[in-house]
Every structure is written in C-alpha cells, then in structure tokens.
Amino acid sequence: MVEKVIKTDDEWKRLLGRDEYLVTRKRGTEPPFSGKYYNFKGEGVYRCVACANDLFSSKAKFDSGSGWPSFWEPISEESVEEREDRSYGMVRVEVVCARCDSHLGHVFEDGPPPTGLRYCINSVALKFVPEDELNSEG
C-alpha cells in the first residue's frame, strides 16, 4: 500500500509550475509533440513531478508516434492507478499517480508486446532521473 501525499489546492499551486499544476491537478494535457520527453532517449526513471513517486522506467518507453511519451507498462503495479474517464464525450482510462492522485495521462490498448498497452503520459507530469543519479541515491 502506497502512503498518500495529500495537499490543499493552494499548496499544490505553490509547489508546481503553472503547466504542471494545470495538467496534474486539473486534468489538463499538453499539446502533442511539445513535451520535453516525447522524443527523449535517456536511460533512467520517470518520476511524478508532484511527489517524486517512481512511475515508469526508460526500459518500457517506446515511440508511439502520438507526440507524448509512451510506455508499455508502469514501473510497478503500485505506482499508478487507473480510473474511468468520461470527459469530452469519450470513455477512456485515466492514469494517475498512486501516491498523490496527480493526473498523468491515459492508457490505451494499442501498445506493443508484451502488454499491448500504451501509457500515453504528459511530459509536464514527469521528472526524469538518469540512471547514474539513481545509483548514487543508494
């Protein structure tokens, strides 16, 4: 069980940048091909920008052509939660951080093997930590 991070809306506004707040707390999205990680190739871990929860490994990242960073699986079953999203007249599966409930993006069933899933995630909701920094964290 993940220990939840709970903050007031004002606390999130102070902690996050404008775009980070709009995406993670207000369920927004960044325009396709605009985020810093959609075409990024570094090796390491993508963490939640709001609470630093480990979300995705670069080993599960792939180029979906969608314009957003895409992963075929989260780093662990406990790192993200999935919720039904009926906004904009569609039925989708929203992906949120299991630790702080930040909106990350959506998951679709058109990804590559081995899962067949595509976690389509907003760059602004992520903070990349290179593998060499992870090794020094101990």
Radius of gyration: 14 Å
> What is the strand content?
25-35%
**What's the average pLDDT?**
95
Structural class: alpha+beta
In one word, what is the shape? globular
Q: What low-confidence regions span 5 or more consecutive residues with pLDDT below 50?
A: none
The arrangement of helices and strands along the chain is HHEEEEEEEEEH
EC number: 1.8.4.12
Cofactor: Zn(2+)
Catalytic activity: L-methionyl-[protein] + [thioredoxin]-disulfide + H2O = L-methionyl-(R)-S-oxide-[protein] + [thioredoxin]-dithiol
Protein name: Peptide methionine sulfoxide reductase MsrB
Question: What is the secondary structure topology, with strand pairs?
Answer:
Blueprint: H1 9-15, H2 18-24, E1 44-48, E2 54-57, E3 61-62, E4 70-71, E5 80-85, E6 92-97, E7 103-108, E8 118-121, E9 126-130, H3 131-136
Using brief descriptors, characterize the structure shown.
three-stranded antiparallel beta sheet; 138 residues; six-stranded antiparallel beta sheet; globular; 3 helices; alpha+beta; single chain
